[in-house]
From TrEMBL:
<comment type="similarity">
    <text>Belongs to the fructosamine kinase family.</text>
</comment>
<dbReference type="GO" id="GO:0016301">
    <property type="term" value="F:kinase activity"/>
</dbReference>
<dbReference type="InterPro" id="IPR011009">
    <property type="entry name" value="Kinase-like_dom_sf"/>
</dbReference>
<dbReference type="InterPro" id="IPR016477">
    <property type="entry name" value="Fructo-/Ketosamine-3-kinase"/>
</dbReference>
<protein>
    <recommendedName>
        <fullName>Fructosamine-3-kinase</fullName>
    </recommendedName>
</protein>
<dbReference type="Pfam" id="PF03881">
    <property type="entry name" value="Fructosamin_kin"/>
</dbReference>
<keyword id="KW-0418">Kinase</keyword>
<keyword id="KW-0808">Transferase</keyword>
């Protein structure tokens, strides 16, 4: 548990005067605070500097990559460092508003624009994190199938096996991916786009937070959006008006949801196992 005295030590180091501290909830990895200061409203995220090495440095890189596309409002990094065995990241606070139809239109159009940013290889400049687990981003694959199989699914399947989870037909499923995943170019994606990382804000704009940014398969973002809900169907229809998806994309969504379900299995345990096995069996 982080004490207010530590927060005051951090803000003194960063030359802020604090007037109010409020803890924010919704994530599972960091302690997060809304801090009112002499320099405006801030968000301060805190984590042990031994638990997840370079976590905030990797988050900073991901946020900067998203910001460079000028598609969404992205928190601006105002400070980061280490103090008393704790790493911290300071960003500007983004206020939220009730979501309107104009917000959804802005979101779908700009998500399509974000996904049109590309490069030659799948991956990213550095490995980062998906939740509290390492996400390998070595840019060695030009093929979406190889990237998703080798750098996304297999590491999570191996981690699950180390915890005693064994899946039937996993080898056949991995082979079948060759016939299931479309051959598209790498797309810059948020990488963890559930509705908790989406903020409707002023002037009908959308802010995105807490990314697992990389050049990946754009349907991964859409799959995460549908996994836990919160995004109406109009978003997906509007997205396709701006950036048409390969046919049968809705039928493929469980294949890409499997990555996130395996991550949840490896973090939270066995309740996610049946859903993972069902997807593997269905596409084997």
């Amino acid at each position: 548990m982080i004490t207010n005295s530590l927060l005051h030590t951090i803000t003194e180091k960063e030359k802020f005067i604090v007037s109010n501290i409020q803890q924010l909830y919704g994530g599972d990895i960091n302690e997060v605070f809304h801090v009112s200061t002499s320099n405006g409203e801030k968000v301060i995220k805190l984590n042990s500097n031994t638990y997840l090495p370079h976590l905030f440095k990797r988050e900073k890189e991901g946020l900067e990559a998203l910001s460079s596309t000028h598609t969404f409002i992205i928190p601006q990094i105002e400070g980061w460092g280490e103090i008393e065995n704790v790493t911290y990241l300071i960003m500007n606070y983004i206020s939220s508003e009730a979501v309107t139809q104009d917000h959804w239109e802005f979101f779908s159009e700009n998500l399509a624009l974000l996904h049109q940013q590309t490069q030659e290889y799948f991956g990213f400049s550095n490995d980062n994190y998906i939740g509290s687990l390492p996400q390998i981003n070595t840019p060695i694959y030009k093929n979406a199938i190889d990237f998703y199989r080798e750098l996304r699914l297999i590491p999570q399947l191996q981690l699950a096996q180390q915890s005693g989870f064994t899946f039937k037909n996993a080898d056949r499923f991995l082979k079948n991916l060759e016939n299931l995943i479309p051959k598209e170019a790498p797309a810059l994606i948020h990488g963890d786009l559930w509705n908790g990382n989406f903020i409707a804000t002023t002037q009908n704009q959308i802010a995105l937070i807490d990314p697992a940014t990389h050049f990946g398969i754009r349907e991964i973002d859409l799959a995460m959006m549908q996994l836990f809900g919160g995004f109406p169907d109009v978003v997906f229809k509007s997205y396709e008006e701006h950036f048409l998806l390969e046919k049968n994309w809705r039928e493929r969504q469980p294949i890409f949801q499997l990555y996130f379900l395996l991550v949840h299995l490896n973090i939270f345990g066995s309740s996610y196992f049946p859903r993972c096995q069902e997807i593997i069996s269905r596409f084997s």
